[in-house]
């Protein structure tokens, strides 16, 4: 495996110390910010051990690109991900719970492509047409007085 962290934040220095402590420098990279298309054109699985989540925007982006996630049952995430079907859900962001979800994902790694196709179909069904300007105009016309 190779793990890439995307984005930036206050936790970066702490995560770098953990990488060094566990001698994982050859397997872990801090990639900064990148466009979703670039990320999902090169990566296969999203890992999001969230303790709190509203609407899972980064999970939605991955699903649009046909990728799956291992994440926690928080916020609206369970409404987007079918455990074992379009991704994997951990009950809590604890090492035991999240580790078990990661293990289930790894055991089914030969199915990730098929699951990604199901994830894409599920999010397309949920979100409908992606033509935002046309959708906005339609909403305005439907709700005018």
Could you explain the architecture of this structure?
By secondary structure, the chain is of the alpha/beta class. It is 48% helix and 14% strand. The protein contains 7 helices and 5 strands. The chain has helices spanning 12-21, 36-42, 57-64, 77-80, 95-107, 112-127, 132-142; strands at 3-6, 28-32, 45-48, 68-72, 88-90. Strand 1, helix 1 (12-21) and strand 2 form a beta-alpha-beta unit. Helix 3 (57-64) packs across helix 6. The N and C termini lie far apart (56 Å). The model has no long low-confidence stretch (mean pLDDT 90).
Task: Give the gist of this structure.
The chain has helices spanning 12-21, 36-42, 57-64, 77-80, 95-107, 112-127, 132-142; strands at 3-6, 28-32, 45-48, 68-72, 88-90. The protein has 145 residues and is of the alpha/beta class.
């Amino acid at each position: 495996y190779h793990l890439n962290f995307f984005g930036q934040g206050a936790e970066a220095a702490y995560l770098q110390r953990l990488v060094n402590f566990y001698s994982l420098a050859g397997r872990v990279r801090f990639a900064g910010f990148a466009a979703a298309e670039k990320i999902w054109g090169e990566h296969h699985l999203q890992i999001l051990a969230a303790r709190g989540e509203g609407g899972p925007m980064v999970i939605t982006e991955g699903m649009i690109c046909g990728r799956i996630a291992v994440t926690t049952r928080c916020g609206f995430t369970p409404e987007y991900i079918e455990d074992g079907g379009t991704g994997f859900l951990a009950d809590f962001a604890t090492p035991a719970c999240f580790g078990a979800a990661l293990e289930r994902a790894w055991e089914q790694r030969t199915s990730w492509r098929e699951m990604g196709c199901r994830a894409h179909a599920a999010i397309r069904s949920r979100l409908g047409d992606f033509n935002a300007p046309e959708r906005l105009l339609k909403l305005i016309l439907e709700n005018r007085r």
